[in-house]
Protein backbone atom coordinates (compact mmCIF):
# COMPACT_ATOMS: atom_id res chain seq x y z
CA UNK A 1 0.00 0.00 0.00
CA UNK A 2 2.93 2.38 0.39
CA UNK A 3 4.13 1.87 -3.21
CA UNK A 4 2.72 4.84 -5.13
CA UNK A 5 3.09 3.15 -8.55
CA UNK A 6 1.16 0.14 -7.28
CA UNK A 7 -1.60 2.36 -5.87
CA UNK A 8 -1.77 4.34 -9.11
CA UNK A 9 -2.21 1.08 -11.03
CA UNK A 10 -5.07 0.13 -8.71
CA UNK A 11 -6.85 3.39 -9.55
CA UNK A 12 -6.16 3.46 -13.28
CA UNK A 13 -5.83 -0.16 -14.43
CA UNK A 14 -6.12 -3.01 -11.97
CA UNK A 15 -9.22 -2.41 -9.82
CA UNK A 16 -11.33 0.70 -10.46
CA UNK A 17 -12.03 -0.13 -14.14
CA UNK A 18 -13.30 -3.58 -13.13
CA UNK A 19 -15.51 -3.08 -10.05
CA UNK A 20 -18.73 -1.27 -9.14
CA UNK A 21 -18.03 -1.02 -5.42
CA UNK A 22 -15.07 -0.99 -3.04
CA UNK A 23 -14.66 -0.91 0.72
CA UNK A 24 -11.63 0.70 2.29
CA UNK A 25 -10.26 2.08 5.54
CA UNK A 26 -8.50 5.31 6.47
CA UNK A 27 -4.98 4.13 5.59
CA UNK A 28 -6.06 2.88 2.17
CA UNK A 29 -7.97 6.10 1.46
CA UNK A 30 -5.00 8.26 2.36
CA UNK A 31 -2.59 6.15 0.28
CA UNK A 32 -4.92 6.43 -2.73
CA UNK A 33 -5.11 10.22 -2.61
CA UNK A 34 -1.33 10.49 -2.09
CA UNK A 35 -0.57 8.12 -4.99
CA UNK A 36 -2.93 9.86 -7.42
CA UNK A 37 -2.29 13.45 -6.23
CA UNK A 38 -5.82 13.90 -4.97
CA UNK A 39 -7.21 16.31 -2.39
CA UNK A 40 -5.39 16.45 0.94
CA UNK A 41 -2.50 14.41 -0.57
CA UNK A 42 -0.05 16.42 1.54
CA UNK A 43 -1.56 14.92 4.71
CA UNK A 44 1.14 12.53 5.92
CA UNK A 45 -1.12 10.60 8.30
CA UNK A 46 -4.31 10.90 10.29
CA UNK A 47 -4.09 12.47 13.71
CA UNK A 48 -6.50 10.38 15.72
CA UNK A 49 -9.98 9.96 14.26
CA UNK A 50 -10.03 10.96 10.57
CA UNK A 51 -11.70 14.29 9.80
CA UNK A 52 -15.10 13.69 8.18
CA UNK A 53 -14.76 16.64 5.80
CA UNK A 54 -11.35 15.47 4.57
CA UNK A 55 -12.65 11.92 4.08
CA UNK A 56 -15.68 13.28 2.22
CA UNK A 57 -13.47 15.39 -0.08
CA UNK A 58 -11.32 12.38 -1.01
CA UNK A 59 -14.32 10.08 -1.56
CA UNK A 60 -15.96 12.71 -3.77
CA UNK A 61 -12.75 13.11 -5.79
CA UNK A 62 -12.34 9.35 -6.23
CA UNK A 63 -15.87 8.96 -7.60
CA UNK A 64 -15.80 12.12 -9.76
CA UNK A 65 -12.29 11.69 -11.18
CA UNK A 66 -11.86 7.92 -11.17
CA UNK A 67 -15.40 6.52 -11.03
CA UNK A 68 -17.95 5.74 -13.71
CA UNK A 69 -18.39 8.49 -16.30
CA UNK A 70 -18.99 8.75 -20.02
CA UNK A 71 -15.75 8.10 -21.88
CA UNK A 72 -13.95 6.73 -18.80
CA UNK A 73 -12.95 3.10 -18.37
CA UNK A 74 -14.39 2.67 -14.87
CA UNK A 75 -17.53 1.16 -13.38
CA UNK A 76 -16.91 2.39 -9.82
CA UNK A 77 -20.07 3.99 -8.37
CA UNK A 78 -19.91 3.07 -4.66
CA UNK A 79 -17.32 3.39 -1.88
CA UNK A 80 -17.88 2.14 1.67
CA UNK A 81 -15.35 3.93 3.88
CA UNK A 82 -14.89 2.50 7.36
CA UNK A 83 -12.80 3.65 10.28
CA UNK A 84 -13.03 2.82 13.97
CA UNK A 85 -15.35 5.70 14.87
CA UNK A 86 -17.61 6.08 11.82
CA UNK A 87 -18.54 4.88 8.35
CA UNK A 88 -19.39 6.83 5.19
CA UNK A 89 -21.08 5.31 2.17
CA UNK A 90 -20.54 7.44 -0.95
CA UNK A 91 -22.50 6.58 -4.09
CA UNK A 92 -22.94 8.09 -7.53
CA UNK A 93 -26.60 9.12 -7.81
CA UNK A 94 -28.83 6.79 -9.82
CA UNK A 95 -26.84 3.59 -9.30
CA UNK A 96 -27.56 2.44 -5.74
CA UNK A 97 -30.42 2.45 -3.25
CA UNK A 98 -31.01 1.67 0.42
CA UNK A 99 -27.76 3.38 1.43
CA UNK A 100 -28.95 4.35 4.93
CA UNK A 101 -29.66 0.72 5.82
CA UNK A 102 -26.41 -0.39 4.16
CA UNK A 103 -24.14 1.98 6.09
CA UNK A 104 -25.98 1.20 9.35
CA UNK A 105 -25.59 -2.54 8.73
CA UNK A 106 -21.85 -2.14 8.20
CA UNK A 107 -21.52 -0.17 11.44
CA UNK A 108 -23.56 -2.76 13.33
CA UNK A 109 -21.34 -5.54 11.93
CA UNK A 110 -18.28 -3.69 13.24
CA UNK A 111 -19.66 -3.62 16.79
CA UNK A 112 -21.06 -7.14 16.90
CA UNK A 113 -18.13 -8.92 15.24
CA UNK A 114 -15.46 -7.12 17.28
CA UNK A 115 -17.29 -7.95 20.51
CA UNK A 116 -18.27 -11.45 19.25
CA UNK A 117 -21.96 -10.86 20.04
CA UNK A 118 -25.14 -11.36 18.00
CA UNK A 119 -26.46 -7.91 18.89
CA UNK A 120 -24.90 -4.68 20.15
CA UNK A 121 -24.25 -4.97 23.89
CA UNK A 122 -24.40 -1.35 25.10
CA UNK A 123 -22.36 -2.19 28.20
CA UNK A 124 -19.41 -3.20 25.98
CA UNK A 125 -19.32 -0.36 23.44
CA UNK A 126 -18.64 3.37 23.35
CA UNK A 127 -19.11 6.22 20.91
CA UNK A 128 -15.97 7.86 19.50
CA UNK A 129 -17.48 9.60 16.47
CA UNK A 130 -17.42 13.40 16.34
CA UNK A 131 -20.69 14.93 17.57
CA UNK A 132 -20.33 17.75 15.02
CA UNK A 133 -18.43 17.88 11.74
CA UNK A 134 -18.06 19.72 8.45
CA UNK A 135 -18.95 17.87 5.23
CA UNK A 136 -16.02 19.31 3.23
CA UNK A 137 -12.85 21.36 3.46
CA UNK A 138 -12.55 22.15 -0.26
CA UNK A 139 -16.10 23.36 -1.04
CA UNK A 140 -18.79 25.22 0.90
CA UNK A 141 -19.44 22.79 3.72
CA UNK A 142 -22.48 22.06 5.79
CA UNK A 143 -22.03 21.74 9.55
CA UNK A 144 -23.76 18.64 10.85
CA UNK A 145 -24.67 17.77 14.43
CA UNK A 146 -25.44 14.14 15.21
CA UNK A 147 -28.91 13.26 16.47
CA UNK A 148 -28.92 10.04 18.54
CA UNK A 149 -32.49 9.35 17.41
CA UNK A 150 -31.47 9.48 13.73
CA UNK A 151 -27.85 8.28 13.60
CA UNK A 152 -27.56 8.08 9.79
CA UNK A 153 -26.91 11.50 8.27
CA UNK A 154 -27.12 12.21 4.54
CA UNK A 155 -25.79 14.98 2.30
CA UNK A 156 -25.26 15.41 -1.43
CA UNK A 157 -22.55 17.02 -3.49
CA UNK A 158 -22.26 17.19 -7.28
CA UNK A 159 -24.14 14.00 -8.11
CA UNK A 160 -22.73 12.00 -5.20
CA UNK A 161 -24.72 11.04 -2.09
CA UNK A 162 -23.02 10.56 1.27
CA UNK A 163 -24.44 8.55 4.17
CA UNK A 164 -22.59 8.85 7.50
CA UNK A 165 -23.15 6.87 10.68
CA UNK A 166 -21.19 6.58 13.92
CA UNK A 167 -19.90 3.19 15.07
CA UNK A 168 -20.46 1.80 18.53
CA UNK A 169 -16.88 0.74 19.21
CA UNK A 170 -16.21 -2.47 21.12
CA UNK A 171 -14.16 -1.60 24.23
CA UNK A 172 -12.53 -5.04 24.54
CA UNK A 173 -12.41 -6.52 21.02
CA UNK A 174 -12.43 -10.29 20.68
CA UNK A 175 -12.57 -10.79 16.87
CA UNK A 176 -10.88 -8.28 14.56
CA UNK A 177 -9.40 -10.51 11.83
CA UNK A 178 -11.38 -9.89 8.65
CA UNK A 179 -13.39 -7.11 10.27
CA UNK A 180 -13.02 -4.74 7.30
CA UNK A 181 -14.20 -7.44 4.91
CA UNK A 182 -17.18 -8.25 7.16
CA UNK A 183 -18.12 -4.55 7.32
CA UNK A 184 -17.95 -4.11 3.54
CA UNK A 185 -19.84 -7.36 2.85
CA UNK A 186 -22.62 -6.57 5.33
CA UNK A 187 -23.09 -3.10 3.87
CA UNK A 188 -23.16 -4.48 0.34
CA UNK A 189 -25.74 -7.11 1.37
CA UNK A 190 -28.18 -4.31 2.31
CA UNK A 191 -27.46 -2.20 -0.79
CA UNK A 192 -29.72 -2.19 -3.81
CA UNK A 193 -28.09 -1.87 -7.21
CA UNK A 194 -30.08 -0.25 -10.00
CA UNK A 195 -29.60 -2.09 -13.30
CA UNK A 196 -28.30 -0.01 -16.22
Automatic annotation (TrEMBL):
InterPro entries: ADP_PFK/GK, Ribokinase-like. SUPFAM superfamilies: Ribokinase-like. Keywords: Glycolysis, Kinase, Magnesium, Metal-binding, Transferase. GO terms for molecular function: ADP-specific glucokinase activity; metal ion binding. GO terms for cellular component: endoplasmic reticulum. GO terms for biological process: glucose metabolic process; glycolytic process. It holds the Pfam family ADP_PFK_GK. It comes from the Eukaryota. PROSITE patterns: ADPK. This is ADPGK glucokinase. It comes from Neodrepanis coruscans (wattled asity). The gene is Adpgk.
